[in-house]
Design goal:
The chain is an alpha/beta fold. Helices cover 41% and strands 17% of the residues.
Length: 351
Amino acid sequence: MYELNEKLRALSAYVPVDASGCVRLDANESFLGLPEEVIAAAKAAIDRIEFNRYPDPAAAELCRAFAGYYKVKPEHVVAANGSDELISVIFSGFLMHGEAFATLEPDFSMYVQGGHLAEARHVAIEKPGWAIDVDQVIETCNKENVRLLIFSNPCNPTSLVLSKEQVRRLVRGVNGLVVLDEAYMDFSNESLLGEKEDFDNLIILRTCSKAIGMAALRLGFAIARPEIANALRAAKSPYNVNSLSQALGAEVLKRPDMLREALERILISRKALLGGLAEIGAEYPGRFILLPGETNFAALDMDGGREVQQELLKQGVAVRYTGGLLRVTCGAPEENRAFLTKFAEILEAAK
């Protein structure tokens, strides 16, 4: 009788919050839909697609649109079916069996899964007080002969951000490859995107699922020096980004004014959410700590966070409990108000 191997038996499928009919503040998506003009352009693009043909394996137009928006060179950009695909390709391609990779815990769960499937040795570096100790990371990585360090900045789930100078020091200090996941960097100002040519051991990841509001299309990008970018192109599957995602993604990325306006609206929502939480924190001192983040979500360090998440879900508001933190995506004004009202009521009831 056939049996699954040990590494597959050890895995559990990713299970999102079951939030049908709820206010959705659990997945860090944008609360903004695409404008009608973009939807119209997408419908026109459908008419131009030859559905009997494979998509462009290089996703050239999409990569040019991404490069134009973020002011990088197209030859440094590799498109993929979400950042998750890139994480998988990086682990399978840049690590040999048994080599060590490091994560800065807590962080995005897909990093550990990628390393597990690549049969690599995991070095988990804990964050004291949720913050990254750069010197500790460098020392541990080099002592453990880490070949690949991967972490998010700003961090999911803590929302904290390392400064450019701290990240530069980390990349230069580590002997292995550094994968810098900047999925939330649209909400901060500490990106190294314009400096990737300064480092021969750096891959930067970006996504269209957060600030750009295209989570449904599954679009991710790796940005690196040409020799690394070419290696990624060789390691990925040849037709990894479908024609519809390429066409619509390019249409959106060619509209910088629209994207900047959307980002501003998300930042206004963040300010309202964090301000509301600060007021609740003043009313219920000691019940939670609001981390000072630079993402599109709030991260709360509190006792009983998982129970609070479950109670909110019962009351029609979906948030996420992950990495020991209650994580709340900033939403539309009415969504923020719904969460803040229910959260305050739960704290009041637990007095």
